[in-house]
UniProtKB/TrEMBL annotation:
The lineage of its organism: Eukaryota, Fungi, Dikarya, Ascomycota, Pezizomycotina. InterPro entries: GINS_A (IPR021151), GINS_bundle-like_dom_sf (IPR036224), GINS_Psf1 (IPR005339), PSF1_C (IPR056783). It is found in: Nucleus. This is DNA replication complex GINS protein PSF1. Residues 172-220 form the DNA replication complex GINS protein PSF1 C-terminal domain. One of its GO terms (cellular component) is GINS complex. One of its GO terms (biological process) is DNA strand elongation involved in mitotic DNA replication. Belongs to the GINS1/PSF1 family. It comes from Hortaea werneckii EXF-2000. Component of the GINS complex.
Length: 221
């Protein structure tokens, strides 16, 4: 059935919205959908080939352009053309929805403070058996690098404001946090602290908010 393969991309896009990291890029499915679009386009061209407009010479020597395909004269062909057109349109919309969802997720991860290298290697263990090193396609890797550079240049104009910080005002200035992953030594307004796994600290929220977003720290209470 036409567009059945493309529906898998829609289901993947819906699943991506509820995931923390991007799953592997569905390259095989994308290629199958684009191939179906090309096949449908060739079929449309073959159906219209006998009806291509032709120029004939009239009795007075003028060139007369004969009419092309008339749906009323051949409803069966018109129906086939309509079905193919709708199938191609649905396939393209499914492709756009899938790639837009993945792009939105990449941009969301950038704004949350995730590092580009961390994004590219996210959940690589799920692809270790296939030998791939990234869940992103080549185009997605190029896009995320360009977007990260653009975001860094934009944030560089506002050094006094953390544009990627939370929009909700903190309830408490100081909070208790637990270290989930070793993060090394960081500098705070009240001195330096070394973040080692399973240790706990009472720190100013503004100093560690980015580390909480990146998953290094867990807010307690």
């Amino acid at each position: 059935m036409y567009a059945e393969t493309a529906n898998k991309l829609v289901l993947d896009a819906k699943r991506i919205q509820n995931l923390q990291h991007l799953p592997p890029y569905a390259a095989t499915t994308v290629r199958a959908v684009t191939k179906e679009v090309r096949d449908l386009d060739r079929e449309v061209n073959s159906l219209l080939a006998p009806y291509q407009s032709q120029r004939t010479q009239g009795s007075d020597g003028t060139q007369i352009k004969s009419s092309g395909f008339n749906p009323a004269e051949d409803p069966a062909t018109a129906c086939a053309l309509l079905v193919n057109h709708l199938a191609m349109r649905r396939n393209k919309r499914c492709l756009l929805a899938y790639h837009r969802t993945r792009t939105d997720k990449l941009e969301e991860m950038c704004w949350s403070g995730a590092d580009v290298a961390e994004i590219q290697s996210a959940a690589t263990s799920t692809r270790a058996q296939s030998g791939d090193s990234s869940n992103l396609s080549a185009d997605e890797e190029a896009y995320i690098n360009s977007y990260s550079n653009l975001l860094a240049a934009y944030k560089g104009q506002w050094t006094d404001i953390d544009l990627t910080g939370s929009l909700e005002p903190p309830r408490d200035i100081f909070i208790d946090v637990r270290v989930l992953r070793d993060a090394g030594e960081i500098q705070t307004e009240y001195g330096s602290i070394t973040l080692t796994k399973n240790s706990q600290f009472y720190v100013r929220q503004a100093d560690v908010e980015r580390l909480i977003q990146q998953g290094y720290l867990q807010k307690l209470g």
